[in-house]
Design a protein that fits this description.
Elements: E1 4-11, E2 21-28, E3 33-37, H1 44-52, E4 59-64, E5 67-68, E6 83-86, H2 98-103, H3 111-124, H4 140-152, E7 158-162, H5 170-187, E8 190-195, H6 198-204, E9 207-212, E10 215-220, H7 222-227, H8 232-239, E11 242-244, E12 256-259, E13 264-267, E14 273-282, E15 287-293, E16 296-302, E17 313-318, E18 322-324
Parallel strand pairs: 3-8, 3-9, 6-7, 7-8
Antiparallel strand pairs: 1-2, 1-4, 4-5, 9-10, 11-12, 12-18, 13-17, 14-15, 14-17, 15-16
Length: about 325
């Protein structure tokens, strides 16, 4: 029996414009870390709310361990009892202390155990030093950690995260990703998160789902999807891919191809193809170079830092490409 299954799930908010999700078929296994990726308005958060029980599908079923998930009309407090969801709004008591926000989720039957578990959870998420601070005094990233601690302290079977890294700065983002992965393994929980940034899914998840206009258009392991995106939409989200038709450096066996910027090699020495530099921007580990070749713009991530400026002629070759279906 599948752990979590969606069968032909449809939820529309408007008859005239595409909204919500449509005919979603999805099977999720226990212990997976899944990222749902898509542009704003693609249906990511709607899908998360349908899984949790905040919303009821108009068509189809959402099953958890073979049982239909009850919607808000069937429960006084919406949401499945064995799941926890952390939304972008972060439902925290901003004038209460961090410790009290987290411990409030536990029963008072054993106060000593309650105190100890709260301390352990805070330490696990690296917020034990904030125990006596009020939520209103914390940064956005610190509040996010408190919200996650509050969600996992009761050891749910499923943790749902809506854009968990949106308020976290770059330095702490990797640390929080590591903490979520450790939590999932330590507690044995399934994590389903939503993100507009595919790097979150590639680095953290073992399964990624791409959604567009309310429909799943690609899913698989991060490696499978990255090296076989199948659509221009997925390729662009994954790595600023160049979407190219009819170019001499590509075969003619497919109508359209994706070429990731780091798969184009630049050289000052004569190689296969000659292009003109349109712009050069330093980006730390590489320089982002925009080329013009036969009227087409090509984006290149050059880690060799070939000396270039606007208007220069430069040679390039393509090391790898992927055929697309659309």
């Amino acid at each position: 029996m599948p752990f979590l299954q969606l069968n032909k799930v449809t939820k529309n908010f408007s008859e005239n414009t595409p909204s919500g999700v449509s005919e979603i078929d999805l099977t999720i296994h226990a212990g997976q870390i899944i990222t749902i990726i898509g542009e704003s308005g693609s249906g990511k958060t709607t899908l998360l709310k349908l899984i949790y029980g905040y919303l009821v599908p108009q068509i189809g079923t959402v099953l958890f361990n073979g049982e239909p998930i009850k919607g808000p009309t069937e429960k006084l407090i919406p949401g499945h009892d064995e799941m926890k969801m952390v939304t972008q709004e972060l439902t925290l008591n901003i004038y209460a202390k961090v410790f009290d926000n987290i411990s409030s989720q536990l029963s008072n039957a054993d106060l000593e155990a309650k105190h100890e578990l709260t301390l352990q959870t805070m330490e696990f998420l690296r917020i034990d030093h904030l125990a006596n601070k009020k939520i209103v005094e914390l940064s956005g990233g610190e509040q996010q950690r408190v919200a996650i601690a509050r969600a996992v302290i009761t050891e749910p079977k499923v943790l749902l995260l809506d854009e968990p890294f949106s308020q976290v700065d770059t330095i702490l983002k990797r640390q929080l990703r590591d903490d979520i992965e450790r939590l999932a393994k330590f507690l044995g929980i399934t994590v389903i998160m939503v993100s507009h940034d595919p790097t979150d899914g590639l680095s953290l998840s073992n399964h990624v789902i791409f959604i567009k206009d309310g429909k799943i258009i690609r899913e698989g392991s991060p490696q499978e999807v990255y090296f076989d995106p199948r659509s221009a939409y997925v390729a662009k989200l994954l790595g600023k891919a160049n979407i190219i038709k009819n170019a001499p450096f590509l075969p003619y066996t497919a109508p359209i191809y994706a070429v990731y910027p780091h798969h184009i090699q630049l050289s000052e020495q004569p190689t296969a193809y000659l292009a003109t530099v349109r712009s050069v921007h330093f980006n730390g580990a590489y320089q982002e170079v925009e080329l013009i070749f036969e009227g087409k713009n090509l984006l290149v991530h050059d880690a060799q830092f070939v000396s270039l400026q606007k208007g220069d002629a430069v040679y390039f070759d393509v090391n790898q490409y992927f055929s697309l279906e659309n």
